Amino acid sequence: MTEASPARNVFFVGVDVDSMGGSQRVLHTLAQGMGERGHRVELIGIRPSAEPFPYNTTRAYRHATLYPPSPEPKPPVRTVGDRLSLARRADARRARAAREHARAEMQRRLSSVEDGYIVFGSPWAADWVMPLEWQHLKGIGQYHESFAQARRSANLGLIRRHYPALEQTLVLSQGDAVEFVNQRVPNVRVMPNPLPFYPDESAPLDTRKIGAVGRLDPIKRYDRLIEAFARAREGREGWELHLFGDGPLENELRMKAEDLGVADQVVLRGTVKDMAAAYRELSVVAISSEREGRPMALAEAAACGVPCVSFDVSGGVRELVDDGVTGTLVPPADVPGLAAAFGELMDDAGLRQRYGAAGREHVARLSLPSVLDRWDSVFAEIER
């Protein structure tokens, strides 16, 4: 930590901070980096993750989860008798007690310091914390998705309700900043997500593997990714598609690959602890989502020198992929276009190397020390 950056108390708060995901990785990366700089940092998850990922096994920050692990799901309520049953009423009492305990524990933690910052990792986290007493802290609201995603969900309403009361609102791209200002959200500035790693060497890009990183959820549209891969693979032997992450669509995606005749070439890798090593296995990284904010997979892949192919679904994606320089952008949902982009990179090792080298240079500004310097500047500006 520089001389101009005194130690501060910093609370990062999210709803689920431990699942495998881009926003969760960002919170742990920031908490670790600030802790190593000497700030007193606590990362608090409101609800536990069903599938916690082991971020930062050696931590420079405290970590807590407010709610206990969820019990086994109960059968659905089908009749009035079910609703009024003693067991259901007991469950409702336990749920209220868990909520009261979680809020009391959060209040205790916030009251344990005289000053500092509370950083809301999402508008839902802000909504949960707002009724508590935390006014002795300075509030900062993050948003890890695009403005377009916020507008299509309840997030925009929550941001407009809560974030104007905070000292600062941090978004991922300049275009999103303009849109939120137009929605009368003041004090908006751009804050990129930091890279959790920046390896000394680039990936070799000779493995004939295309990869995607993220939960196997509907929003990722891995069905389109598998279809594009199946098209691109025709006449190109030896290539595989590797999916890193767990999720509810695993069986469905396996069947999709089987239906398209690529079951042996689509490899579901599950959760991987060493993501830097996983990226080094790949020759191309792909994003096929319906929507994204500023997907960390694109930045992390570029840091490893891996070229990216993505649907052009947000300003954040466009800032991370310089089309025709570091990778290829394809119109949203254009599966044939995605397949053609794959084919071009599959056929041209020199192009993969050029895109990969340019990508590393493009995201160097997102190294953790650079982003932490920007956070310290935000703190200093708020305190002036």
TrEMBL record:
InterPro entries found in the cross-reference section: Glyco_trans_1, Glyco_trans_4-like_N
Source organism of the structure: Streptomyces gardneri
Residue ranges of every copy of the Glycosyltransferase subfamily 4-like N-terminal domain listed in the record: 20-194
Domain named Glycosyl transferase family: residues: 203-361
Keyword Glycosyltransferase included in the entry's annotation: yes
Keyword annotations from UniProtKB, A to Z: Glycosyltransferase, Transferase
One Pfam assignment: Glycos_transf_1
Protein's name according to its UniProt entry: D-inositol 3-phosphate glycosyltransferase
